[in-house]
Design a protein that fits this description.
Elements lengths: L16 E3 L2 E3 L6 E6 L4 E7 L3 H20 L2 H17 L1 H11 L4 H18 L2 H4 L4 E6 L2 E9 L2 E5 L7 H12 L3 E5 L6 H12 L7 E3 L4 H9 L3 E7 L2 H13 L3 E5 L4 E5 L5 H13 L9 E7 L1 H16 L19 H16 L3 E4 L18 E4 L6 H4 L6 E7 L2 H10 L2 E2 L1 E5 L3 H10 L4 E4 L15 E2 L2 E2 L6 H7 L1 E9 L16
Parallel strand pairs: 7-8, 7-10, 8-9, 10-11, 12-13, 12-18, 13-16, 15-16, 18-19
Antiparallel strand pairs: 1-2, 3-4, 5-6, 6-22, 11-21, 14-15, 17-20
Bound molecules: nicotinamide-adenine-dinucleotide.
The site of nicotinamide-adenine-dinucleotide (NAD) has 26 residues, from helix 8.
C-alpha cells in the first residue's frame, strides 16, 4: 500500500499521511490542492484518504493502544517533555509552514505555535493531573479508589485557521493520558500537523500513537462511524460541528465539537478610546480576522463613543501594514484561499446592501508585487443592525462591524442574544459594570479590558450556544476529563469473614 512520497505523478509536491511512524502516500487517488496564499498559486497536493485508508490507520492506532495505555504515566510524560523540547526547537520551522499554507504573518504564526506548545507543556504534568482519588476505610476494612483510564483510539478533526495550535490542543492531552490518536487536519494546511507527528516519533513516542490522516468528508465520516474510535474532538464551523456532534454521539462516542463565532466588544462611555482602538486593531484584523476569537463586532454605548471611535479607527484601518506572510513587521497577511476571500467580499457587499455604512472598504486593496495573492484590506462598517444577515452570520475575515446601543444593558443583550457565544469583552473603567457583564453575559469566554480572552493552557477553552457542542472544553483539566474515563474500585481487606446481606449495604 505505501510507496515513497516522491513517486506521485503531478508536478506539485505531494503530501502524505503519517501512520505508524511512516509517511504513507495515497492509494486512493483523490487529491486536494494546497495554495500559497501570499503568491496566490497552488503549491502542493494533499491526498484525500479513502475509507479503507482511514480504516487501516485506525487498525494501527488500535494495535498501538494497549502498550501505550500500559506505559507508566511518568514515562508518557517524559516522552511529552522531549516532544515539548523539539517543538520549541522547531518553532520557527513550524511557524513558516503555517505562513506558507495559511497566510498569517510570521510573528503571529510564531505566537500561535507557542500557544499550542503551552498545551503540551501542561500535558507534561499528567502524573499529577491523572491521579485518582482514594477514600480510606469507608466501612469496616473497605477502601474506595478511582482511576482515570484512557479511552482507546480517539480522533481529532481540525480547522484551517490554527494548523499548529489546535492539533496540539487535542493531541497533547489525548496522548499523555494513554490514548492513541488519528488526527485529521484541515486539507487546506496539513504540513504543520504532519511535521509535528514526525517530531513526536523523534521524541521517542511509539509509532502508531500519533497518526495523521489527511482527507475530507469521506475521512471524517469514516472516523465518525467506526466503532473503534471512542471519542471525537472537533473544531471548525458550526454546521459541521453540529453534524459531527450528532453523528458521533449517535454512534455512542464522546464528542466535543467547537463551532463558529461572532464576538462582541462592549465599549462603555468611560473607556479610554485610544486603548479600545489599539485593542480592536489587533483583535479584529490580526490573522486577517481568521480567528474564532477575533472581535468582529464593536458595540458602542452611545453615539458619541461610536463617532469618536470611528474617527480614530478609520485612518488606522486604511493604513494597516499588509503584505507577504514571511516578511516581518507586518500586521496582516492574505486570506487562506481565493474562495474564502470571495466569501468575505460577498459579506462586505451584503452589509452594504442591507443598509449599513461602509466606512473603509478593503476590497480594492492590492499588494504590490503580490497581485495574485489572496489579499484584502481591512474593512470597517458602521450602523450595523441586529436583524442584518451580515451581523447574524460569521464573516471570518478582516471586517469590523460597529453597532450603537442606548445602554449597557442593551449592549450586553446583543452578545447574549446572538446565536454564537464563543468570546466577548468589555472595555470600561467601571468595576461594577465589568463584574455584571462577566456574570450575566451568555458567552463562554469573557475579557475585561482584554480583547481576545483565550484562556491559557492550564484553564480551558470553550464557547456557549452555537459555538460549542458537548460537555467538556478543550485543554486544561477539562481535556483530562474528556480523554479519560473513571473506574472506581471498592475493596475489602479484613481478617474476619463475610456475612450474607440481602438489603442494600449501608454503613451501620
Ligand atoms: P470547516 O468546518 O470547514 O472544517 C473543519 C474540519 O471539518 C476540516 O478538517 C474539514 O476537512 C472538515 N469538514 C469540512 N466539511 C465537512 C463535511 N461536510 N463533513 C465532514 N467534515 C467536514 O472549518 P474551517 O473553514 O476549516 O475553519 C473555520 C471555522 O472554524 C470558523 O467557523 C471558525 O470560527 C471555526 N473555529 C472555531 C474554533 C472554536 O474553538 N470555537 C476555533 C477555530 C476555528
Amino acid at each position: 500500500m505505501s510507496q515513497p512520497a516522491e513517486a506521485l505523478s503531478s508536478n506539485f509536491p505531494a503530501l502524505y499521511h503519517y501512520v505508524n511512524g511512516e509517511k504513507i502516500t495515497a492509494s486512493g487517488g483523490r487529491f486536494g490542492d494546497i495554495f500559497n496564499p501570499t503568491l496566490g498559486v497552488k503549491s502542493a497536493e494533499v491526498p484525500l484518504a479513502s475509507k479503507s485508508e482511514v480504516e487501516a490507520a485506525i487498525a494501527v492506532a488500535e494495535a498501538a493502544f494497549p502498550a501505550w495505555a500500559a506505559t507508566s504515566v511518568l514515562k508518557r510524560s517524559r516522552v511529552m517533555t522531549k516532544f515539548l523540547q523539539l517543538l520549541y526547537e522547531h518553532q520557527t520551522e513550524l511557524a513558516e509552514l503555517v505562513c506558507k499554507e495559511h497566510g498569517k504573518v510570521i510573528e503571529d504564526a510564531m505566537g500561535s505555535v507557542l500557544r499550542g506548545i503551552e498545551v503540551v507543556e501542561f500535558a507534561c504534568g499528567a502524573p499529577h493531573q491523572q491521579k485518582g482519588e482514594f477514600s480510606d476505610n469507608v466501612a469496616n476494612g473497605i477502601d474506595i479508589y478511582s482511576m482515570r483510564k484512557p479511552l482507546g483510539v480517539v480522533a481529532g478533526i481540525t480547522p484551517f485557521n490554527f494548523p499548529a495550535m489546535i492539533p496540539l490542543w487535542m493531541t497533547g492531552m489525548a496522548i499523555v493520558t494513554g490514548n492513541t490518536v488519528i488526527l485529521k487536519p484541515s486539507e487546506k494546511d496539513p504540513s504543520c500537523p504532519l511535521r509535528m507527528a514526525e517530531l513526536f516519533v523523534e521524541a521517542g513516542g511509539p509509532p502508531g500513537v500519533f497518526n495523521v490522516v489527511n482527507g475530507d468528508k469521506e475521512a471524517v465520516d469514516t472516523l465518525l462511524n467506526d466503532e473503534r474510535i471512542k471519542a471525537v474532538s472537533f473544531v471548525g464551523s458550526t454546521a459541521i460541528a453540529q453534524y459531527v456532534y450528532a453523528t458521533a454521539t449517535a454512534n455512542g462516542k464522546r464528542c466535543q465539537a467547537m463551532g463558529g463565532a461572532k464576538n462582541h466588544m462592549l465599549i462603555m462611555p468611560d473607556a479610554d478610546l485610544e486603548d479600545v482602538a489599539n485593542a480592536l486593531m489587533g483583535a479584529a484584523y490580526g490573522s486577517a480576522g481568521e480567528r474564532c476569537m477575533s472581535i468582529s463586532v464593536g458595540v458602542c454605548v452611545g453615539d458619541k463613543v461610536a463617532d469618536e471611535l470611528i474617527e480614530i479607527l478609520k485612518p488606522r484601518v486604511e493604513a494597516l501594514r499588509i503584505g507577504p506572510s514571511l516578511d516581518s513587521g507586518l500586521e496582516m497577511g492574505p486570506l487562506v484561499t481565493k474562495q474564502h476571500r470571495e466569501k468575505v467580499m460577498s459579506y462586505i457587499q451584503m452589509a452594504q446592501d442591507e443598509g449599513s455604512k461602509l466606512v473603509v472598504d478593503g476590497r480594492d486593496f492590492v499588494c504590490d508585487g503580490y497581485e495574485d495573492g489572496y489579499f484584502l484590506g481591512g474593512s470597517l462598517i458602521d450602523q450595523v443592525k441586529p436583524e442584518m444577515q451580515s451581523y447574524q452570520e460569521e464573516i471570518f475575515g478582516p471586517v469590523l462591524q460597529i453597532m450603537r446601543s442606548g445602554s449597557f444593558e442593551e449592549g450586553m443583550a446583543l452578545a447574549t442574544d446572538h446565536p454564537y457565544g464563543n468570546g466577548t469583552s468589555i472595555f470600561t473603567k467601571d468595576g461594577a459594570a465589568a463584574r455584571t457583564f462577566a456574570d450575566k453575559v451568555e458567552v463562554g469566554m469573557v475579557g475585561i479590558n482584554v480583547p481576545i480572552p483565550v484562556p491559557l493552557a492550564f484553564h480551558s477553552f470553550g464557547g456557549w450556544k452555537s459555538s460549542a457542542f458537548g460537555d467538556h472544553n478543550q485543554y486544561g483539566m477539562e481535556a483530562m476529563r474528556f480523554y479519560t474515563k473513571v473506574k472506581t474500585v471498592t475493596s475489602r481487606w479484613q481478617d474476619k469473614g463475610l456475612e450474607a446481606e440481602f438489603s442494600m449495604p449501608v454503613l451501620k
